[in-house]
């Protein structure tokens, strides 16, 4: 039996809160783990009864659960072997993060669904020429972590800006205008703002040796103390920042 960690934790937390009004933080780690084991035993027993009803004759002396001691030892050995071979390492990466469970989520546990979102077109003033470059984005809440504006080197209309800089509409920081082939010249205006809240962005930031600025906390709140948007929930901040820029003709 597989322990299905994230799904099980989410279910037990939901049951716990509905029945007692408590969270796992109220219980503490050890007490919460006890609740999870109780839930596991209840539903494992139900599974066995269901298997019996469909006619399965199983040797339960050979049953294994992914959190049993033997299974844990096997998993630990595999991870140690992979680490020793250099396949496991520490790095800065973008991950799918659950603000409720406070944990990273595997890509296979993420359900991607198409959504309709508002596209914002934002002006970045070119420092050297005083022109406006227009960047299209749906995620205005990530603006505070911008470190550069990027164009595709094959996009001729932006080649003249090579080596120039823009003034950020919110932070007023001076950011470089750089080229990278990742940018799709046919999306939006062909320009991409580079921030630390997407996998491709972080890869480009690391490749170019730029600074990684995170402006959203693990709770999904804007974390930028010197900003009027500090502490706002990320989706609320998306709207507020859009309104702020619109009022100032950005």
């Amino acid at each position: 039996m597989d322990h299905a960690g994230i799904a099980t934790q989410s279910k037990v937390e939901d049951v716990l809160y509905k029945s007692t009004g408590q969270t796992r933080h109220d219980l503490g780690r050890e007490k919460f783990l006890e609740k999870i084991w109780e839930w596991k035993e209840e539903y494992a027993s139900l599974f066995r009864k269901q298997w019996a009803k469909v006619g399965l004759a199983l040797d339960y002396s050979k049953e294994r659960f992914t959190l049993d001691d033997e299974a844990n030892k096997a998993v630990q050995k595999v991870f140690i072997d992979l680490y020793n071979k250099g396949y496991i390492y520490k790095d800065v990466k973008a991950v799918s993060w659950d603000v409720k469970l406070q944990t990273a989520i595997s890509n296979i546990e993420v359900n991607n669904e198409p959504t309709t979102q508002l596209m914002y077109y934002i002006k970045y003033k070119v420092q050297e020429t005083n022109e406006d470059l227009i960047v299209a984005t749906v995620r205005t809440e990530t603006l505070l972590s911008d470190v550069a504006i990027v164009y595709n080197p094959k996009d001729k209309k932006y080649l003249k800006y090579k080596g120039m800089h823009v003034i950020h509409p919110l932070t007023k920081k001076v950011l470089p205008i750089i080229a990278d082939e990742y940018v799709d010249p046919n999306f939006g205006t062909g320009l991409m703002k580079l921030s630390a809240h997407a996998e491709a962005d972080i890869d480009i930031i690391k490749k170019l040796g730029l600074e990684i600025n995170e402006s959203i906390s693990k709770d999904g709140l804007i974390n930028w103390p010197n900003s009027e948007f500090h502490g706002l929930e990320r989706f609320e901040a998306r709207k507020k920042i859009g309104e702020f820029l619109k009022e100032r003709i950005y």
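Residues 1 and 47 are 10 Å apart (CA to CA). The mean pLDDT is 91.
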